Amino acid sequence: MATLDYNGIWQAAYTLFRADSDVPAATDDEYTVGMRLANEAINYWSGFDSTYWKELYTTAQGNSTGGVVTITTGTKTYACPTAFREAGGFVRVQDANGNDQARYPIIDSHEAQFKGSKDSYCFFTGGPIGWTLNLNPAPPSSLNGLNIDYVYYKYPTLFTTGTDVTELSEPYYIVHRILANLFRASRNPYYASALRDSESAIKTMKLDNEGGTWANAPYMYDRSNSVFGG
Question: Which domains does the chain have, with CATH numbers?
């Protein structure tokens, strides 16, 4: 499925809603309402069934907006990117060639009380509106100016302009969820049908999300003929 920006999604949704080739422009209230409904769809997708979507994994260097991703000698705390949600594994300090010069294992913040002052570790504090990376021990001068990088799970990109795109793989899920909400607002009985279409699309995305890749498909061993001691 090709990626659609908001304008393409809105055109598809409104055409299904009114069966009309004339679609409200960006200056119309309906266009704004449609964008809000599109963002509702994205937020619903991001929290659907406690799924970790592959599209929402990124790195501090790859998506650093709003964060501090460069080491300063003696500084132990660094603002995380605005999209940051949670991280795991290691925080790496890398040179310009991407080679690791230091690694800090990530622990839960409450575990820091059991660590020594010279132990190497890091943790995240704060909340949805202001996560902070905490490094221990304080970086020495040999790391000054190097890059901070870590894999993190992020919040989805919401629409703010007509040319914005979001991460999810099936844009027609958004189309059908917008359509369902437009039908609901107008008390149209086709609401249930449009909602089923959107739910079908999101469940298909979840199945694909958990289905591996064409080169590394998941499988289960067939143990139907196994016997005790066999």
Answer: 6-54+156-209 (no CATH), 61-149 (2.40.30)
